[in-house]
């Protein structure tokens, strides 16, 4: 919160310059259901640290967490600074009709567009933490067992795929795909057993509506026939087993929309270098992952894949580094937070220049004589002589 001193330009001599972070005012934070506590508290901490007042709207799809926040926050924080508003679509719509100094939303792109449209009425700035189809490129020259373990825990260990940074699909070569599939099968059986629906380490699907949505994604014949592992479901317990699919047609709903569940399609290409072009035919993802020992491929990946964030040779762990910003780009969101970036998200960086009364440059003021114009042109062109003449008050004038 301390003002940051920055260099003052010689053209404003004598002066000092600083950047003063100031709170935006009263902010609205709308959180998501998949990590309902963290995705509520994390941005609230940043907003309060920056000096704002906050209205928090927890997700109604995680009702236990929502009611817990509504009960406990007023007991332990200043209720004049932080308010919790529970409810569903009606309450959220009412909140969005109010004038805010910033809106922070975590969730789907569909609702993100509604939030952005509502914010536009008042020119309210927004931070949108959305999702997208996060790709994983798997080269053949990797430690396959380690790579597959990391992919598996990043996909199914992250809320059974119900995470915005979970791998959405894998890209590998046609020749390497069978070996990758076999390794995934072995690791998944080791992690979740022969009957993964009985595993206590596998999250349930959040509700019946999302269960049906996911079930419908693989009921289409040209998708169902591409399942090479898993696919078991238990609607009563809202459980879906880890499911691997190979070369699902690109025009299916599974491949065009964000999956947000336990299905992991594998897309094959002739050469691993073709994977970058394939990723770039889709919208910009929130996260992009690459497993390789090839430094050239790694450099091309970092340079040519637009994404909110990326990680080489692992999955999801980039969000654990507080010195890295977390946020999307394009359809996967706008703005970032985590660590100091949370503070920055909820502040305005106010530019402050403070001058003394000395250092008057006569050439600055009209009437603009040829002599003054010559000095001014020199200043624009970076002439040191023109700068000295201006600071010495040439051309001389009466007061």
From TrEMBL:
Keywords, alphabetical: NAD, Oxidoreductase
Protein's UniProt keywords contain Disulfide bond: no
Pfam (any one): Aldedh
GO molecular-function terms, A-Z: aldehyde dehydrogenase (NAD+) activity
GO aspect biological process, one term: response to abscisic acid
Active site: 129, 164
Keyword Oxidoreductase attached: yes
Domain Aldehyde dehydrogenase span(s) in chain numbering: 17-352
Gene3D superfamilies xrefs: Aldehyde Dehydrogenase, Chain A, domain 1 (3.40.605.10), Aldehyde Dehydrogenase, Chain A, domain 2 (3.40.309.10)
Enzymatic reactions: an aldehyde + NAD(+) + H2O = a carboxylate + NADH + 2 H(+)
Assigned protein family: Belongs to the aldehyde dehydrogenase family.
The protein's name in its UniProt record: Aldehyde dehydrogenase
Organism: Urochloa decumbens
